[in-house]
Model the fold of this input.
Amino acid sequence: MTRFALTLEFDGTEFMGLQRQAHGPSVQQTVEDAARAVTGEAVTMHAAGRTDAGVHAVAMRAHVDIAKDIAPFRLMEALNALMRPARVAVTACEVKPDDWHARFSCTGRAYVYRIANRRAPLTLERNHAWQVPQPLDAAAMHRAAQALVGRHDFTTFRSVHCQAQSPLKTLDRLDVRREGDHVMIDAAARSFLHHQVRSMVGCLVLVGMGRWQEEQVAEALAARDRTALGLNAPPEGLYFVRAVYPDE
Done:
């Protein structure tokens, strides 16, 4: 049995999320079905993270265990051929030791949230950015975001459906920057709670609009109460961009 590490890129628009779902298509099912067609084996995919419906990935890491004798490049090419026309692709494939695990060996995860800050309707970026027509003060958003960096109880920024045992998380980075008519938010941590990034982004956007004062983000955090959340950002602006491993 060989463990293959996959790097996946996908457009989450057509999927119910990364994890296999009974009520619609998922990235996991798409990859597993293609792997079964290639190998004739029942293959289970394990991923570094679980993305919601509509969330995208630039470099999600995953692994599959396969008994068939096949080279990594051949496996990658076969999977990509069989997954068409689904909007998911394997961009890299390599052999890993048996004790390497896409989820449990991962020591860091990073996301980017993309906001199109313009009034004109989105064409090329439809379903791939959150359009906010009101002018946003990215500098104020960045200042407010720093109150969330560090180890905190993120109950306010946690979905009521979150299955994590504890709301305590250490946020390593939350930076806000403007690139022309886009506002980009970079978040990095060892792991995140369900909806944590989207919830933080929603509150920062309220600051950027001037509807919240900067200190209200810290107050929402301190409340440790989901009802203190101002806004949960939609999924289409969120991208999983990096998984970190000690051996890499």
Observations:
- The chain has two domains: 2-96, 108-244.
- The chain has a mean pLDDT of 96.
